[in-house]
């Protein structure tokens, strides 16, 4: 499932987060997502990156198409980590939202690590800037 440590971990976590958001917007206040929930989804995507990399290492003779597909999966998971963090930061910065939406250093480190594994150096710069500028305003 979401923390299964498989390539599908991130997709499963996204499904859970989507259901939580939907239920919250429909009036179920017990399903209000917070920084912990977003960080768990980011961690699941990070875990799927690790699973993708370890699977890639175990295959000695993999064709080019499979290698490209794995690289694209890795980049998509890293980008999803960044998107989730951006969404969390936007929610945190809205007027009236409480501190339960403030991303932690662990959240930022997970995203930076995922982007680094995907060799998305521009993404790493965006997250560094977000951390330095955006989160110090409140």
Summed up:
This protein is 70% helix and 0% strand.
Mean pLDDT: 84
The ordered string of helix (H) and strand (E) elements is: HHHHH
- Radius of gyration, rounded? 16 Å
Q: Give a count of the beta strands, DSSP E runs of length 2 or more.
A: 0
Percent of residues in helices comes to over 70%
Are there runs of 5+ residues with pLDDT below 50, and where?
none
Structural class: mainly alpha
Share in β-strands: under 5%
> Cα distance, first to last residue?
35 Å
Task: Please tally the helical runs, counting DSSP H or I stretches of 4 or more residues.
Answer: 5
**Largest sheet geometry:** none
Global outline: globular
Defining key terms:
0% strand; mainly alpha; 5 helices; 138 residues
Task: Describe the protein's architecture and organization.
This protein is mainly alpha-helical and 138 residues long. It is built from 5 helices and no strands. It has helices spanning 9-25, 35-58, 64-93, 105-117, 121-133. The protein is globular, with a radius of gyration of 16 Å. The N and C termini lie far apart (35 Å).
Write the layout of secondary structure elements.
Layout: H1 9-25, H2 35-58, H3 64-93, H4 105-117, H5 121-133
Helix pairs in contact: 1-2, 2-3, 2-4, 3-4, 4-5
